């Protein structure tokens, strides 16, 4: 039996980390389906960045619903797939918004209750690839791609988000294999796809992937 049959890979990472690029590369390299984060057709995103406090709850519920539908489609189809940002990361954003006062505590409690109910119906990814980039590097990439809806993102917002991701990865790696990747240390997305494939076959948990020529 092919060890990559019905493989479910989740790509996690900060805004601008390169998740879509890696998802595309992995899809091509492994010959599997690719599911992208709903960005272009997200009818809340512009309002969220314009007035985060007002639209934080609505945006998180919208994304949770879209991501859950996508997550379930991956399972129902029964084919190998890679997902650009996992449903678990939505809770990272919600928690950060609550901690920074950008989401009301009652809204956050409601969100968590809904997320927990949904989680009972979800199958976990076989492996999560975490693209680890600093808040400063994330900001550079956001500015470089110049999306209008992202103009209001601040470095403080990204720093709070990065802290949330570190806590998330520490927790999720206890139940799902996580490969931490410093994207800037790889020459091409194709090269990184090959390294990730090798690390998954080793069944490593929370391992930092490095290029062969960088290993000691």
Structure in words:
The structure is a single chain. With 216 residues, this protein is α/β, with parallel strands linked by helices. The protein has a single domain (8-214), classed as Rossmann fold. It contains 8 helices and 6 strands; from the N terminus they run βαβααβααβααβαβ. It has a 6-stranded parallel sheet, sandwiched between helices. The radius of gyration is 17 Å and the shape is globular. The termini are far apart.
The tally of domains stands at: 1
Order of helices and strands: EHEHHEHHEHHEHE
CATH fold naming: Rossmann fold
Principal-axis shape equals globular
Topology readout:
Blueprint: E1 8-13, H1 19-30, E2 33-35, H2 45-50, H3 52-77, E3 81-84, H4 88-99, H5 105-119, E4 127-131, H6 135-145, H7 155-172, E5 178-181, H8 189-201, E6 207-209
Helix pairs in contact: 1-8, 3-4, 3-5, 4-5, 4-7, 6-7
């Amino acid at each position: 039996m092919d060890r990559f049959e019905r493989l479910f890979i989740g790509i996690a990472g900060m805004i601008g980390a390169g998740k879509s690029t890696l998802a595309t590369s992995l899809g091509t390299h492994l010959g599997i389906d690719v599911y992208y984060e709903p960005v272009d057709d997200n009818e809340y995103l512009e309002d969220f960045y314009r007035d985060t406090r007002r639209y934080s709850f609505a945006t998180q519920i919208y994304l949770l619903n879209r991501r859950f539908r996508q997550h379930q489609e991956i399972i129902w189809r029964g084919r190998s797939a890679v997902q650009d940002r996992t449903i678990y990361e939505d809770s990272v954003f919600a928690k950060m918004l609550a901690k920074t006062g950008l989401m009301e505590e009652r809204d956050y409690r409601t969100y968590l209750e809904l997320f927990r109910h949904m989680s009972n119906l979800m199958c976990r990814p076989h492996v999560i690839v975490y693209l680890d980039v600093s808040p400063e590097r994330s900001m550079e990439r956001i500015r470089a791609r110049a999306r209008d809806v992202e103009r209001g993102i601040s470095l403080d917002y990204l720093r709070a988000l990065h802290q949330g991701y570190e806590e998330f990865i520490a927790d999720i790696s206890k139940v799902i294999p996580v490969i931490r990747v410093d994207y800037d240390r790889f020459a091409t997305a194709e090269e990184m796809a090959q390294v990730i494939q090798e690390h998954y076959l080793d069944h490593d948990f929370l391992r930092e992937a490095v290029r062969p020529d960088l290993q000691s």
